[in-house]
Amino acid sequence: MTDCFFLDAGNGKTGVSNPRAAALVSALGRRSIVLIGLMGSGKSSTGRRLAQELGLPFFDTDAEIESAAGMPITEIFAQHGEEYFRDGERRVMARILSEGPRVVATGGGAFMNAETRARIASSGISVWLKADLDVLWRRVRKRTHRPLLHGDNPEEILRKLMDERYPVYAEADVTVVSRDGPHDLAVMDVIEALERHLLPAPQFPAPAIPPGDTTSKAASGLPPRADCAEVRVVLGPRSYSIFIGSGLLGEAGRRIQQLAPQAACAIVTDENVAALYLPAAEKSLADAGIKYSSVVVPPGEGSKSFEIYAKVCNDLLKARPGRSGIVAALGGGVIGDLAGFAAATLLRGMRFVQMPTTLLAQVDSSVGGKTGINAPHGKNLVGAFHQPSLVLADTGTLESLPLRELRAGYAEVVKYGLIGDAAFFA
Question: What is the pLDDT of residue 7?
Answer without folding.
Answer: 27
